[in-house]
Design goal:
It is a single chain. The protein is of the alpha+beta class. The chain has a single domain (about 5-145), classed as Gcn5-related N-acetyltransferase (GNAT) (Aminopeptidase), CATH 3.40.630.30. The chain has four helices and seven strands, in the order βααβββαβαββ. The strands form two sheets. It has a four-stranded antiparallel β-sheet, with helices on both faces. Strands 5-7-6 form a three-stranded antiparallel β-sheet, covered by helices on one side. Helix 1 (about 15-30) crosses helix 2 (about 40-55).
């Protein structure tokens, strides 16, 4: 295990492949199903859509991408941590950054099957405010909200 210090950097396309690989592995582990998009389409989504619509930041240890978050002042679109680096406060660090940049209220969706994510968000002050199926995977999801006290 690489014990080098974690740093948070703005997303840069040189990290695209590594970021997408980490994202896909983390998501597949969380959902128990394969990603529905091709690797190349996933990279295009990251570079052409996500990085233009949201602030995307990476957590690095050395030159290894160990986490990513995409957010704006109102919502968190994506938050994934490398499967070998979960439980090391990386998600918490990224989440705190989004909270600091927020309007004092953030919303996000997580999949109903992803109990680990639900526990994580609830532990960090998010409350469930809705349920739905607004995702390409066709899986039930939960809408969470966090408000500054």
């Amino acid at each position: 295990m690489n014990q080098s210090k974690m740093e948070i950097i703005p997303y840069h396309p040189i990290y695209a492949d590594q970021t997408v690989e980490m994202w896909r592995n983390s998501k597949e582990q969380a959902l128990g199903q394969k990603e529905i998009h091709s690797f190349d389409d996933h990279v295009d989504f990251l570079n052409q859509i996500l990085a233009k619509q949201f602030q995307v930041e990476l957590a690095l240890m050395g030159d290894r991408v160990v986490g990513m978050i995409a957010y704006n002042e109102r919502e968190i679109s994506q938050l994934y941590i490398h499967i070998d680096y979960q439980g090391m406060r990386i998600g918490q660090t990224l989440l705190e950054r989004a909270k600091e940049q927020s309007t004092g209220r953030l919303t996000l969706y997580t999949f109903e099957v992803n109990k680990k994510a639900q526990h994580f968000y609830e532990k960090h002050g998010f409350k469930m405010i809705g349920r739905g199926y607004e995702n390409e995977e066709g899986l039930p999801d939960i809408l969470y909200e966090w408000k500054l006290k």
